[in-house]
Amino acid sequence: MTRVFWKVLKEGRVSLTLAAVVEILSGALLQSRLEALISLPILLAIVPPLNDMAGDLGTIVVARLTTAFYLGSIEPRLRENKGLRMNLSSLMVVCVLTVLYISMLSTLYSTLHLGVFDAGILFRIISIIMLAGMTGVFFTLVCGTLLSVASFKKGYDPDTMVMPVITVIGDFLSIGSALLISRMFGLV
Amino acid sequence: MLVRAGQVLAGMSEVRKIVKESTVAEILSVSGGVVAGIILSSMTGILERVPGLLAAIPAFLNMRGAVFSSFGARISTRLHIGELEPKYRLRGLALEEALAAFTLGISQSVLIGMLAYVVSLFMGTSPSLLHLLGIFAIAGILSNVIMIVITFYSDVWLYRRGIDPNNVIGPYITTIGDTIGLLTIIISVEAMGL
């Protein structure tokens, strides 16, 4: 095996192990709060799509920036960088469109599968999806950008080093914002 | 003035490309999450029969997504910078990347089995270390082989069609990885006769 194989293994091993430990703990945390979440199934149902969205958009920003850094089309610096701003704002637009879609799916799920059509609860659930989704994604994108720039500057490949970590950060931030905002709306 | 206007228009066109390609990928990903949720909800019998399995499933699924999004992004970068030709041939540098992803995937699967055992002990359940290691080793091998093939060929296919794999491959791979990960766990539990 040549340099590429060992470089991927060396860089990937650390971040993946860290990600696995945090994910196991997150799984245990969710399991320990399962009863509270089961009491309002619609709330439980929005956790996976919010997680998916934050992780996905995090991986997109890291993948796009890594390619741009290697090609030299975006400078790996944080200040006065139009390329970074353009990527972040485009992905926030994708986030807004996706939370609208998740809101629509959740309303259908609640009405058709759970047989619940309570306008008050649905309004609060949709507000939670919007606020938690956008907050979680915003901070995930910021973390993805900061870590990609730092990793590239240090000579590590962000595709290998940052990618596994950003999905965990996305999970943590989206679950955290969903629980926090649900609490503010008096649902948990 | 004209140069500035040209730059603004180029920027707008890039924004449109990102929004269009990534939104389609995200909608597919979120919809795929529902499919994975349905598969998971059908696994209640297995989860009852194998203590400790539930604590490890989120980590196993996340790890599939992380290893193969990363593999997909590296292949995409190499296609963009010209180190790989967009051909459907898994050899040379692409094969080396695939073997690295396979090795990482297997070692992490075994690690997750061990971590699930320790966490389950702390949570008061009594799992079998042999069962957890066996399930995640078999599921890891099966899902790695399938994911390497899907990720590599999707990357090349997207690139050849003029779609930037960076905008699409992350959401697409995490969604496919969730479904394949859950199905291979079911297969490995059945294969071990549990």
TrEMBL record, chain B:
Superkingdom, natural source: Archaea
Gene3D superfamilies with a match to the protein in the record: SLC41 divalent cation transporters, integral membrane domain
UniProt keyword Magnesium present: yes
Residue ranges of domain SLC41A/MgtE integral membrane in the record: 57-186
Primary location class: membrane
Keywords, sorted A to Z: Ion transport, Magnesium, Membrane, Transmembrane, Transmembrane helix, Transport
Membrane spanning residue stretches: 27-47, 98-123, 129-153
Membrane topology: Multi-pass membrane protein
MF terms (GO), sorted A to Z: monoatomic cation transmembrane transporter activity
SUPFAM superfamilies: MgtE membrane domain-like
Name recorded for this polypeptide: SLC41A/MgtE integral membrane domain-containing protein
Organism classification: Archaea, Nitrososphaerota, Candidatus Wolframiiraptoraceae, Candidatus Terraquivivens
